Amino acid sequence: MTKAKRAAIVGGSGYTGGELVRILTNHPYIDLVGVTSRKNKGRSVTKIHPNLRDKSDLSFIHPEELPEEFSNLDLVFTALPHGRSMEFMGDYLTLSDKIVDLSADFRLSEVEEYEKWYGIEHETPDLNDQFVYGLPEIHRSEIEEASYIASPGCTATAAIIPLYPIVSELGEGIVKIVVDSKVGSSAGGATENPGSHHPERTGVVRSYKPTGHRHTAEIEQELGKIVSFSPHGVEMVRGILSTIHVLFENGPGPGEVWKAFRKHYQDEEFVRFVNERKGIYRYPEPKLLNGTNTVEIGFELSKRDDRLVIMSAIDNLVKGAAGQAVQSSNLACGYPEKAGLERIGLHPI
Ligand SMILES: NC(=O)c1ccc[n+]([C@@H]2O[C@H](COP(=O)([O-])OP(=O)(O)OC[C@H]3O[C@@H](n4cnc5c(N)ncnc54)[C@H](OP(=O)(O)O)[C@@H]3O)[C@@H](O)[C@H]2O)c1
């Protein structure tokens, strides 16, 4: 079958880039034709992503060769570190009608907010307004019309999706929101640093930016509320588990919480509620979601302190990055939203 759209990935040797290659290699409508890496130019993609042996025959090209090699792309995914995406974005816009950027460079609608949280000047403020925040569960109709999509951060995804219905429907009674996230090491990307060295990383439960984490900016942008967010690095490669404390004054009962969730997510392909009374899997669990584009949500109410505790889990590299980017590009291209994303999780794992 001839696939309808031709796509390239800029930054395809990294962790999110590798997941994009994996998902697009199996995509029914998108043909992955180009993948870039500066350090691995000329090497087979499978040398860096060995899980794709026998599945991909692509070799990395240097990002500067992309315009020479491809003049008629339909989709470009950029999976570069923040700061680098905005530096090169002008060049990519001439390559393709549709761009999905996985970095933080175009996620915040106000350039001043970006500069405040990221501590660097925005190099292409004129392009910023043209990007839509790529969270399909909340911005589906805008994404369907979009040319340029800024895919959300991983911990932001795990906070915004469960909180959005609660803030929208029950927001008036909320006194405070505290998000405590446990995050796998792949969230830090493929480039090593002292904290990722095995003896330093293994076995840790490590506070990482307990105050002032940059993803707070997009969480607050989407929810329109102050949110206290503290992530921790834990002993996982993939996955995020967020425990979200919503403190109320005269808070809701379980029926009202379910009503809010149902109103927003009843028909969502990738939102799965966990509502079991017994057993070890009665709450969301990131390891069951490895490789999937699913977000799991569960909750309990504590009457004693008028608190709703929501648990949410995702795979940071899929629903938190590459899967969500493909979900958005499916919408923008008019394809079924779950095309290429129907993988079921593993158990045991
Ligand atoms: N990891 C996650 O869970 C996650 C989730 C959501 C969003 N994100 C965001 O997605 C982006 C990519 O993350 P990642 O984890 O995949 O990072 P990564 O593993 O460090 O990969 C970065 C990629 O960018 C390329 N690159 C780096 N500097 C470049 C430059 N100056 N010019 C061209 N290419 C360059 C690298 O290849 P070469 O150096 O060989 O060119 C590599 O392919 C980041 O902005 C990150 O914040 C990450």
Q: Can you describe this structure?
A:
- This protein is an alpha/beta fold and 349 residues long.
- The protein has two domains: 5-129, NAD(P)-binding Rossmann-like Domain (Rossmann fold, 3-Layer(aba) Sandwich); 154-316, Dihydrodipicolinate Reductase, domain 2.
- It is built from twelve helices and 13 strands.
- It has a seven-stranded mixed sheet with strand order 8-9-7-10-13-12-11. It has a six-stranded parallel sheet with strand order 2-1-3-4-6-5, with helices on both faces.
- The model has no long low-confidence stretch (mean pLDDT 97).
- The protein binds NADP nicotinamide-adenine-dinucleotide phosphate.
- NADP nicotinamide-adenine-dinucleotide phosphate is lined by residues 11-17, 37-40, 63, 79-82, 84, 102-104, 153-154, 186-187, 189-191, 316-317, 320-321.
- NADP nicotinamide-adenine-dinucleotide phosphate binds next to helix 1 and helix 12.
What characteristics describe this protein?
349 residues, alpha/beta, Rossmann fold, Dihydrodipicolinate Reductase, domain 2, 2 domains, seven-stranded mixed beta sheet, six-stranded parallel beta sheet, 13 strands, 31% helix, 22% strand, globular, binds NADP nicotinamide-adenine-dinucleotide phosphate
Give average pLDDT, whole number: 97
Which band does the percent of strand residues land in? Answer: 15-25%
Q: Name the bound molecules.
A: NADP nicotinamide-adenine-dinucleotide phosphate
Distance linking N and C termini = 34 Å
- Fraction of residues in helix: 25-40%
| Radius of gyration based on Cα positions | 20 Å
Query: Which descriptor suits the 3D outline?
Result: globular
Extract low-pLDDT stretches: none
Number of domains: 2
DSSP helical segment count: 12
User: What topology, given as strand order, has the largest sheet?
Assistant: 8-9-7-10-13-12-11
SSE arrangement, N to C: EHEHHEHEHHEHEHEHEHEEHEEEH
Largest sheet: 7 strands, mixed
Helix/strand class: alpha/beta
At the first level of CATH, what is the class of the largest domain?
Alpha Beta
CATH topology of the largest domain: Dihydrodipicolinate Reductase, domain 2
Second-tier CATH architecture of the largest domain = 2-Layer Sandwich
CATH superfamily of the largest domain: Dihydrodipicolinate Reductase, domain 2
